[in-house]
Amino acid sequence: MKGSFYVRRGKRLFDVVVSSLALVILAPLLALLAIAVRIGLGSPVLFRQQRGGLHQRHFAILKFRTMTDRRDASGALLPDSARMTPLGRFLRATSLDELPELLSVLKGDMSLVGPRPLLTRYQPWYTAEETRRFDVPPGITGWAQISGRNSLDWDGRFRCDLFYVDHCSFLLDLKILFLTVGKVLRREDVHVDTSIAMLSLDEERRATRGMAAAGNSKY
Q1: Could you tell me where the DSSP H helices lie in 68-134?
Q2: Of all helices (H) and strands (E), which one includes residue 46?
Q3: Of 54, 122, 127, 219, which one's alpha carbon is 20 to 30 angstroms from that of 60?
Q4: Is the peptide bond before 137 cis (omega within 30 degrees of 0)?
């Protein structure tokens, strides 16, 4: 897989051509969404967060903002569900919040197709096998997104990511992009508030290792 022309050269060329065309075609929509977010949620319009990219290098992912900065009496941010607005829910449900990631694709931080970029704080919690997901650039969509998306548990997501790493090809990327469009239009397997849908990776694995340690201490 690593020696194929598509992985070495073609994938990047495909990303540049498609993301450039998409940004031009979608420019009016992007402008309207930016105005809506500015009016409905305030500034900044774009949400930036450090994620793990190719070979675990950090980069700033770009999305349209979907939550307010509401805080409690002590100054701590309220839970995601309390900060989500109707506009934010619409953007997430339709995946429109992810359109600015096309800029990351054009820049080279991301690809159109690949494992989704995850939080940098997760990096100590991957197994040695799971770190192979970083052998290809992270993507706007991927095999996991068309195979269950938010309904998959972490182990299921990583199995999908590794399948993609081992089978990356032009035809597979086209298939994933085509199926993604259908998923988005039907709004399948979308959880607007993912913090409710599942534990974060570090929380889940910390709990799992804690239970394993507790079990071992009985013997």
Answers
A1: 80-83, 86-93, 101-107
A2: strand 46-52
A3: 127
A4: no
pLDDT digits (tens, 9 = 90+) for 32-60: 999 999 999 989 999 999 999 999 999 99
Highest mean pLDDT out of 48-52, 76-80, 92-96: 48-52
Q: In which residue are the tokens 């930036």 written?
A: 48
Whose CA is closest to 154, among 174, 172, 133? Answer: 133
Phi first, then psi: what are they for 122, rounded to 5°?
-80, -15
Element of type H or E holding 172: helix 170-186
Look at the block and give the residue holding tokens 């967060």.
49
The amino acid present at 187, given as its one-letter code, is R
Encoded amino acid at 5, one letter: F
Range name among 19-28, 76-85, 132-141, 169-178 with the lowest pLDDT average: 76-85
Among 27, 172, 43, 150, residue whose Cα is nearest residue 95 = 150
